[in-house]
Amino acid sequence: MHIRSARLIPYSLPLRQQWQSSMGGFCERKGWLIELSCNNGAKGYGDCAPLQVAGTEPPEVAKQWLKEQLSATEGKSPSELLRRYTAEISQTPAACFALETALLDLIGQSEQVTLRHWVNAKATDHVLVNAVIGTLNDSVGKRAFRKIEQGFMTLKLKVGVKSPQDELAQLHGLAQQLPEKIRLRLDANRAWNLRDAEYFIDGIRGLPIDSLEEPLREPDLKLLAKLQNRADCSLALDESLAQFHIDRLLAHPPVKRFILKPMVIGSLLSTKKLAESAANASVECVVTTTVDSAVGVLATAQLAAAIPASKHLSHGLATSEWLAEDIAEPLAITNGQMIIPDTHGLGIGPITTA
Length: 354
Description:
Blueprint: E1 3-21, E2 24-38, E3 43-48, H1 59-70, H2 78-82, H3 93-110, H4 115-119, E4 126-135, H5 140-149, E5 154-158, H6 164-177, E6 183-187, H7 194-203, E7 209-213, H8 221-230, E8 234-237, H9 246-251, E9 257-260, H10 262-265, H11 268-280, E10 284-287, H12 294-305, E11 315-318, E12 333-334, E13 337-339
Parallel strand pairs: 4-5, 4-11, 5-6, 6-7, 7-8, 8-9, 9-10
Antiparallel strand pairs: 1-2, 2-3, 4-13, 12-13
Helix pairs in contact: 1-3
GO molecular function, one term: catalytic activity
Organism: endosymbiont of Lamellibrachia luymesi
Domain Mandelate racemase/muconate lactonizing enzyme C-terminal: 138-234
């Protein structure tokens, strides 16, 4: 099997409402769909959706890299190409993620196995997911209970948007209404100085908090370790992971959890290796999207299902509902679980932009 042609298909997907965080917000997701066509009729797809605020390359850099690489794919086998791009992940992660996904899609189809089972023969067929309910405001209770009624057990909130005092007051009010076993996952996106982080962590003590992501504006390993010792929930690193050497992080983990975004890391396979290394260091890993298209979400879900150590955790994959439009049918979510198709390769349905 060899690649006969390659296409780069642009898309622009409006959100139903603005995605907000302490780092700002966005109202649409722009990117490119990679389509690789083989001599046997198979097609492989990958999603390149750069998001600089999350840690990817700029869109223009991703586009240029993809144009250069796709022009050189003709006549090559997917397996041969897969071995070629690992060295460029750090410079163009969103682009590398897309190309790797498309290649793995083709390889899985050729070997008649799902992408997740190609990555790990013991992969599961479903993953737990958290619901994303935005920021703390007057309607947060309604949004929370709507998701609880749909079967979600973990609800994710963006914090650090208002003052710590205001957000703590709203959190306590929300927590008092929640049914037993419902957990809140909080993401501060590096909003606070040390004093505010300590104040907030003290303020959520005793609440049903699953984890708190990125509490420090200027992450420091020693300070993060002190905050983790102070907290009664897991602290997590997400966008700050890239600024520390991973071996140093794993030698003396400052927090209990890592948030892994394949679109930002640049590779499904590298993300899996990182998750395995983290598990060996007793660090939990949650896999999340960057509010990607259906192709990107499915690729990330395939990976989450291939990480057995994380099967008890809810992953950040339920982001498709934030999009008013998509390039393919999103995966169904039932009772807080995302069911992953058994189709060989990536398993994406008909593409609407092609």
